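Possible race condition, two jobs.
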Amino acid sequence: MLRLLCLWLVLITPTHAKPLPLSLTFDQTPVEQVLQALADYQQLNLVVSPGVEGTLSLRLHQVPWEQALSLVLKTGDLSMEQEGNVLLIYPHSRQQEKQRAAAAQREADKLSLPLQTRHIRLKYADAGTVNSSLQSERQHLMTPRGSHTPDARTNSILLRDTAAALDQTVRWLRQLDVPLAQVELAAHIVNISEESLRELGVSWGLNSEAQLSDTLGLSQLRVNPRDNRLAGRIGFNLARMDAGLLELELSALEQENQADIIASPRLLTSHQQTASIKQGTEIPYEVASGGNGATSLEFKEAVLGMEVTPEIQADRRILLKLHITHNLPGQALRRGESELLTVNKQEIKTQVIVNDGQTLALGGIFQQQSAVASNRVPLLGDLPGIGRLFRHDRREQKRRELVIFITPRLLSD
């Protein structure tokens, strides 16, 4: 038999704005009786719903009334609502049922709402790409009845859903439909001698490994640019020079036969969009197809090409992903009755971080040029036999380097 051992309440004047702490002692007392005692202390009416059951033992000394009530509710897994001076106590599971019923009702209301159609034309973004992104986010934006269809002809997306879901989806689409930052890339691909490079102020030697790592961004290149014993070397330098002055210097060197400007492409592209340019020829060659001796004709590129993918950083610096090729037809090789033409490949592939408007120089691909020069006395130097006494022949070795100058500029919005 349940037994109430002790109930002791420190009574206070009901007119106090803030009740004084109370003390409670119960032993194996029905929960309804404990709740009734707490309600009487505040002069409140109490309604206890079916399902509130069990006994409770507690001993509280000088605690606020609100804390005592909260502890009793937590212990009995109960919920409370207050309407005026009436306390309604019911099991917490009933509150969860009410919430689930309310959620189900809201879903049912959504299913009964009429569907609307909107045609959203995109100004900058690609409709197919945006539609793929919308597919991965639709459960957070659209109802199960909603649909979205891209239209490549008009670069638009056709939406069908409830009005509220359409408003939310359209706001999300507008956030994606923004213009990408534009980058102009001015490049000069030049064959030039080391002496002329020094005249331009380009030096491949970087001061430290840290500077090299910072220049190359994520690249882990470990080549000593100053080691001339290497058959081929790669050098990097951020040449801070005016682009207009660079063009004048290169033109002057070309007129003096000290440099050969192979190409000066100008490319316009967007953030993370690859721009490329190619110039050259395609070499045909035969490829065996099948075991009956049949052959097919395929082509191999021998071109001067450049691919650049810029990524604009938060500090307006630009990460350039570069792939530059200078492939030339090589020597001919005979194979049976056919003649094969080789391709001499020269490539640079790296990524570098530069500032807006800063000129980047990349090099490291060399070409050897041999020439025979002769100084002779007119007429006498052409005489057979003794003519060699009146002339001096010498062989000159010239080494030129393939250097690429690239200047990226951010275009204003």
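Job #2 (started ~2 s after job #1):
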Amino acid sequence: MLVNFLTHHLNIDWHDDVTHLAQLFLYFYPAIHCSQFQVQAGVTSINTIRLYNPTKQAKEHDPNGEFIHKWVPELANIPVPLLFEPWTLTELEVVMYQLDNNSRYLSPIIDLARSSIKARERLWGWLARDDVKSEVNAILNRHVRTKNTQ
């Protein structure tokens, strides 16, 4: 999720943060993790492009907000479903749930809807390029055994 958001929504090259993120892992195996970074960044050309919506993922995988409440203490008083989009809180709700008026969670770093549109255009635009299609075919021919080549 983190790599997907970094590379697609923020449009940051996966190379720029793989080392930093690797240092945060309890166990880091370059052969596994670097290839997973590439898959999530959509640079392998052979995997389906995945573009995750972090808000939707939070709602689906943490419907009670347990992870957010545990790891983001600043949001501990905010109930579900407001928890997943704190930037939509009214001024009254900010006071009521004791959130600091200057909280970073009241001002998202990006407009998710806009970044999703731009990411889709960029990612699917690359897949439409002839040089990318050619490379996909070369990779598949090199690594996939077809029924006719047994």
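Residues 112-127 form the longest helix (16 residues).
Logs attached separately.
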